[in-house]
Amino acid sequence: MVIEFVLNGERIKADVNPEKRLLHFLREDIGLKGTKEGCGEGECGACSVLLNGKLVHSCLVPLIMVDGRDVLTIEGFRKTERFRVLKEAFSEEGAVQCGFCTPGMLLAAEALLRENPEPDEEDIKEAISGNLCRCTGYLSVVRAIKRASIKGRGLW
Amino acid sequence: MDISKPVERVDLLEKCQGNALFVDDLEIPGLLHAVTLRSRIPRGRIKRIEVPEIPERYWIVDYRDVPGKNSVKMLSEDMPFFAEDKVNYIGEPILLVVGEDKEKAKRILKDIYVEYEEIEPVFTIEEALNGNAPPIYGDNNRFVEYEFSRGDVDDAFRKAYRIVEGEYRTGLQEHIYLEPQGMIGIYSEGKVKVIGSMQCPYYVKNALVHGLGWPEDRIQVVQATTGGGFGGKEDFPSLIAGHVAFASIKIGRPVKLILERNEDILSTTKRHPSIVRHRTALDRDGNILGMDVEIILDAGAYITLSPVVLQRAIFAGTGVYKTPNLRVKGIAVATNHVPSGAFRGFGSPQAFFGVELHGTNLSDEMGISPFEYKKSMSVRRGDLTPTSGKFRSDVKIDEIMSRLDKLSGFTEKYRKYRDEKWKGIGVSLFFHGCGFTGDGEVRLDSRVKLAKRKDGKVEILVSTVEMGQGAQTALRKIVSHALNIPIEQVIYRNPDTDRVPDSGPTVASRTVMIVGGLLHRACEKLKDHMGEMEYVVEERFRMPEYVRWDQKKLHGDSYPEYSWGGVVVEVEVDPVTFEVKTSGMWGVYDVGIPIDERIIIGQLEGGMVQALGWAYLEKMDLKKGFLIPGTITDYTIPTAKDVPEIVVELVRTPYEYGPFGAKCAGELPFVGVAPAFASAVQQATGIRIDKIPITPEYLLEKMNGD
């Protein structure tokens, strides 16, 4: 079937198997490798993208659900000022280690800050609870998102 | 300039942008995909394999396609690349199906039928030792056995005023590095190149030399960006590197093998389950007269790294306690599950879980606060190590403990919770030996190169990998500081065995102290040649002269240096559901001079949370040979919501032989959490904890008197 959607601000039209997962479409058909596959079961969050502004696990999203909607991946997000602020904060708090969860974690932060530009620690923990990280123990990630929310006040 | 002052990680931007190329992100023309047929029984003989007709451009690869020896060379050679006539665990690889479409290859896999003749399996340490089933290994299922002693321990027990015994058990733990294991093999013009996620490029290369029977110059191993390792990518990558190499050689096209998550959980190494038994002889005042320790590790189906894991465990057998007499025994047994392997701490967490929970029990017997008891019974500078070497550097137990008390409020809370049920606080004291165990560093004979290039930059040439721990940044920092050049002038690419010497594996918390130490010395040599167009220096490992070690007797300095730590954990237990909530964790660590304080804090916090998972969340059992739970949906690791407030602080004792005074850090934070957690639960519930993970079900069973 032919689907149409907006990917990182650009209109995409493709003839696809509607059951194919968005993750695999992004990685294999479009060649966007920033979205990672950590489990394929919607548990780890490494494949997180924003679908109409909401955080989703792209490994669980069939392409039929993407038709007519808006998808933001790390490749689109990294061009924004919000990304720059978050990246700085992740650097300053040491929230990046192996980097496999990082694109998904940044998009989880973006989804949270869109909804709630001044989150407290509990809000942040809740917002990233679907994104596993085995390296940092999350504390630095929570501090980083908090820091970004302060430094980037007005951006969200 | 202060070397500890944090700098931006050199890999930060590409990782944030999603530009870092992990093995599954690499685009290689003509790439084929491999999927693996695995044993579905825990133990048996393969009688027959029925393969359906294979469509064109699909291939089967099995043991007959191994050009050299069908064994993954590690410490031993008992583990095959592909099972031939027998299988020893569920998940053991038998053959690959390789082709252009991965889904189609999977469908072909489903139609392959294996007929087995089952053999009575061995699942537990008890079953391995009771001899009821035919042995998996040798005639008694013991892969390896060690013992060392000091003084006259039997006499100590004869003279004891009080004897305290305890048995402490730990379970399986899965690494759950976020990036699953994966490899690509590329065969071209008589040479094979393997690219993948790994900690130890030369382990992979050596295993390929053995499996291919080829000269070294026809084998190249390149590390791709590696998404976490924690020991899980120490020896296992050699197995699948063999698979993709054999497949690409047979087919003549590049072959990629990426494990799916549940396949990774099913078939990759785990932390060794353990039984630690303690008997301690005390005098009237609670002083330790003698310690008798036995540590048994469940090593799984093949030897892999277990002898060294067991050594690290027993060399920590008596923990931080000062004792004139001791006897420590260790056994690693064979069982029919996936091989146990390296996992952050490498046997030491099991040993310290036993000895530190036992330490809490000793203090309880004496009616003394565990904080005071542990502090007063601990070794100090100049005292003997468990293997009767010497703690030469300062042992800042007093500073660690006093800062820990201030941070956590232990003394006051401990007193308060004696009258307040369901709340508790626990403490542990521990060390971690830096670098390879025993004569390991001498055997490794590590080499590093440092090259001044035409463009004025200096390139680090080592086989050490970045896997998230910060090696790329830390080693660059050492060189930039030693040569007094900006960090941007220092190049350090992912290792490629065609370009870098063997500086040993990226394990054992050895990267900064050993490899960084060699680089630091190389800088001293290079300094005088920085004016030249191009210049290369090489440096080779030398054990510091003070180290005395007898590998046969297991006597002397089992490590050149030690890092230290103290941890306090506070918990609250729900009286109805028995769920344990961690209210806070505090850690004070002496890792020498940190090369980058922010990276070290990241290691400490991350290690403590992994250890917290091991202590109460991450339950994995063996049911009829199946790992239960065997999926990421059911195997629970900590999420952001499980993490309490954690405060870590550093004590800085410079190590003379470490680069800028650095010691080791990566594994240390894993070591102390579980016994402090268990001690806290003991105080909260009044239950004698004898096992982790401490799940609500476990506490309920204990409450009901087993």
Describe the protein's topology.
The complex is a heterodimer of chains A (156) and B (706).
Chain A: E1 2-7, E2 10-15, H1 22-30, E3 48-51, E4 54-57, E5 70-72, H2 74-77, H3 81-93, H4 102-115, H5 121-127, H6 139-151
Parallel strand pairs in A: 1-5
Antiparallel strand pairs in A: 1-2, 3-4, 3-5
Chain B: H1 12-17, E1 32-38, E2 44-50, E3 58-61, E4 86-87, E5 93-99, H2 102-110, E6 113-118, H3 125-130, E7 142-150, H4 153-158, E8 162-170, E9 182-188, E10 191-196, H5 201-212, E11 219-223, H6 236-251, E12 255-258, H7 261-267, E13 274-282, E14 288-298, H8 306-314, E15 325-333, H9 348-366, H10 370-377, H11 397-408, H12 410-417, E16 423-433, H13 440-444, E17 447-452, E18 458-461, H14 471-483, E19 490-491, H15 511-527, E20 535-540, E21 549-550, E22 555-556, E23 562-573, E24 580-590, H16 597-617, E25 621-623, E26 626-628, E27 645-650, H17 668-671, H18 673-685, H19 696-703
Parallel strand pairs in B: 1-12, 10-11, 14-15, 18-19, 24-27
Antiparallel strand pairs in B: 1-5, 2-4, 2-6, 3-5, 7-15, 8-13, 9-10, 9-12, 13-14, 16-23, 17-18, 17-20, 21-22, 23-24, 25-26
Properties at a glance:
heterodimer; A: 156 residues; alpha+beta; Ubiquitin-like (UB roll); DNA polymerase, domain 1; 2 domains; five-stranded mixed sheet; 6 helices; 5 strands; globular; B: 706 residues; Aldehyde Oxidoreductase, domain 3; Aldehyde Oxidoreductase, domain 4; seven-stranded mixed sheet; 19 helices; 28% helix
